[in-house]
Amino acid sequence: MSNPMLAAPGLLLLLAAPATAPQPRAWADAGDGVQQHASIHVPRLTVTTTTVILREARRPALVEKKADDCVKMDKLAGFSVNRFDSVDLVLKDGSLLRAKLGSDCPSLGFYSGFYVKPNRDKKICAKRDALRTRSGRVCSVLKFAALVPQR
Questions:
Q1: Which of 25, 78, 129, 145 could form a disulfide with 98 if both were Cys (CB 3.0 to 4.6 A apart)?
Q2: Are 144 and 75 in contact (CB under 8 A)?
Q3: What are phi and psi of 102, to 5 degrees?
């Protein structure tokens, strides 16, 4: 048997409904230049349980090599935070570049993204430019290092 407390709100809605169906308004009656607008609210989905299956991949260890002091901003594709003192930049060609920030500016605040103020040359340069966290912290880039697979 169903719970009567669950059925009650549905019955109340039926009682509140009008006796006759409303007549649709003809578009010709709406007048020139009148438009209708509808907003749909999509509720936020909260995941309460998650199952994660990890497969160990055989990835080669990465080592730091000397890199140029600047990188063009249009070559950036993404980033990842893997160390406390740096942000790893992923370039569009698939290569990796580590931006060293120093011990006074931990990279933990970069998980949700960062901003870079563009210069006229459209490059990010070490010892000149800084990364800005979304929370407002400014971290100078001390140097860049290329990340290459260890042989």
A1: 145
A2: no
A3: 95, 165
